[in-house]
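Notes on consecutive records. When two proteins share a document, each keeps its own sequence and its own token line. Never mix them. Below: protein one.
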Amino acid sequence: QVQLVESGGDLVQPGGSLRLSCIASGFAFSSYLMSWYRQAPGNERELVARIGRSGSTTNYADSMKGRLTISRDNAKNTVYLQMNSLKPEDTAVYYCKADSLGVWGQGTLVTVSS
């Protein structure tokens, strides 16, 4: 069974940092591009970062570029999202996705508030 499990979401103060993790199972992880999306209440789900199969190619949404680093460890079947200088508008549920499989994780909640 294909499965993605996100973790690492938390309540943080503005300006703080979080590192999200997504552990994959049930498919050949290293053969797939992986992405992080987010969805805030009332908003559509939006792409925030994407990483190539080997980890050598990365892409970021303009709204968060410079504050994010996406990475992957194929030996651990895990993709990460390091988020810095967090703002209240970053509050959302963050999801990982194996793009060509169309499979989503359950999401992890990030709340940025003082």
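Protein two starts on the next line and is unrelated to protein one.
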Amino acid sequence: QVQLVESGGGLVQAGGSLRLSCAASERTFNSYALGWFRQAPGKEREVVAAVSWSGGSTYYADSVKGRFTISRDNAKTTVYLQMNSLKPEDTAIYYCAAATRNTGATMTSRRLYDDWGQGTQVTVSS
């Protein structure tokens, strides 16, 4: 079952921009939190940004602060990740994920998320 579908990845030069989209089912979209993660070859998956369903709380990893913006469109049940000033270090497979229930983990913890998209490749050339 695929409830989260990422799109918008691709090849971009350093300094460029991309906007990733994650289309979700209404049920999945209405989760405790939605997050964007990335995983580079040989590295663990890490959270880059997250947004809560209530309160409008957001989180950004230090490595992307000031460059990435997470947002959600409730009408379209879509979450976005606007990526500006891209760096080669941003190269990874990007996943969107949903926390469908409160497990006790925080929004910044990978353990909170139980629904995952298939991923979209982002490659930044220098």
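For the record: The first helix runs from residue 26 to 29.
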